[in-house]
Amino acid sequence: MSSSKHLHQNCCEKSVFAKLHQKYAKDLHDFIYYKYGEDYNPKDKVQIAFLKLWENCKTVAPEKAKSFLFSVANNTTLNVIKHKKIVLKHKQTKVLSDKDNQDPQFLLEEKEYMQKYQNALAKLTPEKRVAFLLNRVEGKKHKEIAEMLGISRKAVEKRIYTALEQLRKEIHEI
Amino acid sequence: MNEVKKEELIRKWLDHELSQEELKTFKTLDEFSAYTKLSEKAKAFKAPDFDIDASLKALESKTNRKKQPVFRIISTIAAVLVLGFFVFKTIQNNSGLTSIQTDVALTEQINLPDKSIVSLNSNSTLDYNSADWNNKRELNLNGEALFKVEKGEKFSVSTAYGKVSVLGTVFNIKSRDYTFQVTCFEGSVEVKIDSKSYILKQNDYLYLDNNKVVLEKNMRSIPSWQENLTIIKNKSLDEVIKELQNYYDLEFDSSDIDTSKRFTGSFNNVNINLALNSITLPLGLSYKIEGKTVILGN
Question: Mean pLDDT, to the nearest integer, of B75-84?
Fold first, then answer.
């Protein structure tokens, strides 16, 4: 049975460890990035979390590895004091070949919009921001996000919906 | 349309679950254009690409390397028969497990759940469990840190050499492969090494010299590393180089010189030329920096 084989699996085995890395490293990185911004070195947090997993590979079962990794990465980030505003970089608005879009007025408005968007995102709570961006940018379903964050699907829906409403009011209503 | 229905429609849209019919209704909402623009523009905030292979490679090199210092510490300790105090913390509650690591040349300040503050020096690791913090104020330290502890229950720091416990005070611990030092700046601390216990009062300074405990007075009001200075008293050049490597990410080529020479003095932790001058000039040595290597010569 595959389940009995599963029981004997151990994070200390290189192949199991590499598989867990393959499965969770990117999500972990995106989670820290969207939640706290680039100033918190999401790549480093991924390394720290996996190193901790490696050190504790005997006590953490593979099926518990996900919550272990997310907890370590999250706690580690939370406990580092930085009072900076969170920064999520946005790409430059693409200059399209369409002539209308190169109109300076349009470009200026676009720039202003993105500036407002960036500020509004920074104002969201980390919990709402990470759920909203995982959904809108990474295209994750509510169910996937719920599993990733270890919360109910209802809670995820609520976070994303209120984030959207808050952003709309902040940016589109004057 | 009532608010509840509208909210449900939006939630479904957010989860890509609208039917054709519902999509039509969604498009009639006043907020439709705002929502679609927000959704479209959100993509510009995409996280930077994450290179999974590079990440795994970096991890593998660290996990392979990580074993070596542990073995070295264990063998050193076994050699002097003091294995008894080597404390391993087992993790029972994963949810609060926190690990803070600083790289070479970087420092961090950490707020503990009880408002105690830890300043972590370069190239150091601090582990603790924040979930269980109110019951057990326990940390593991490998490296150097200054602790400002809020009054309360026992607060203890485990190191490879021993355990330091206090009730509320300011103290500095330096626990590295090659040295162990505890300095008390306020109140008093207890240092337990092997089965012996030492009480340090304000200005007391304890260190291990060839595995023997030495007690001295310290006249500084804060640890020197907080002023970007490393003070060295009668140490071999080998150990001075190890100290330097906590602050500068450099290799040292000392093949042409005698590294058993002793050094007393101090060096700057943020300016490499200043640091190398203050070490090489008194010893009558010279240095050259080539890329990431410092070549020491006579």
Answer: 38
